[in-house]
Design goal:
Blueprint (H helix, E strand, L loop, with lengths): L10 E6 L2 H4 L8 H12 L3 E5 L2 H6 L10 E4 L7 H11 L2 E2 L12 H10 L9 E2 L11 E4 L2 E4 L2 E4 L2 E5 L7 E4 L8 E8 L2 E6 L11 E2 L1
Parallel strand pairs: 1-2, 1-3, 3-4
Antiparallel strand pairs: 5-13, 6-7, 7-8, 9-10, 9-13, 10-11, 11-12
Length: 210
């Protein structure tokens, strides 16, 4: 952006994301986010404005920093509607769309959108329950497989909650491999999974994708 006297005003880029998404331990930014911002700043044309959790969660949007461009993406606890209201108020250029990020709350909608645009997805089946432990006539479970609407999935298979904010993902192993289940979860210390040799049955307290 060029001003009078050939003085160039930097384009401001607002980074409106939760700190857990950009921080990595004691580092200010995680490696991927740090590389993105470093490359932008290397051009000399951009100024990065980092909003921070306090601003995002506590301050009214009227007092949020004003920027020319906005990087904002959803994660657990992120007030997406608030970010959308800010975008309407200040009209920055959106580096990534906000409205479409509501899809991320529901893995079923993510799969539907991928299929709509012809993007390959793995073979999958949906088990939808209105209430926990609801018995479903289209769902069958045997020792080494589950069957959904007549489609059989042999172990090993993956089970994901339809809730996009629930990161408790299970892998069930066949009896020929000793059975059991491995739970995948957000990294805690140096662990991101735990094996449960005694678990053979799939979950029934909610809705899942297989």
């Amino acid at each position: 952006m060029e001003l009078e006297g050939n003085v160039t005003e930097k384009i401001t880029i607002g980074v409106c994301v939760m700190e857990k998404k950009v921080k990595c331990g004691s580092e200010v930014f995680s490696a991927p986010m740090g590389q993105i911002l470093d490359r932008l700043q290397a051009f000399g044309e951009f100024e990065i404005i980092y909003f921070g959790d306090k601003v995002i969660l506590e301050d009214p949007i009227e007092s949020w920093p004003i920027c020319d461009c906005l990087i904002a993406f959803y994660s657990s606890g992120y007030p997406l509607e608030k970010a959308e209201a800010y975008a309407v108020l200040r009209r920055p250029f959106l580096v990534n769309e906000l409205e479409q990020q509501h899809l991320l709350h529901d893995r079923r909608k993510v799969y539907e959108r991928l299929e709509l645009y012809g993007i390959p997805v793995p073979r999958y089946a949906l088990v939808n329950r209105a209430v926990p432990y609801q018995e479903l006539d289209y769902f069958v479970e045997e020792e080494d497989f589950v069957e959904v609407h007549g489609n059989r999935f042999w172990k090993p298979f993956v089970e994901k909650p339809v809730d996009g904010d629930n990161h408790s993902i299970m892998i069930y192993y066949p009896s020929s491999a000793g059975g059991g289940m491995k739970e995948l979860f957000r990294k805690v210390g140096n662990r991101s999974s735990e094996f449960h040799p005694e678990v053979r049955r799939v979950r029934r307290e909610g809705s899942y994708i297989y």
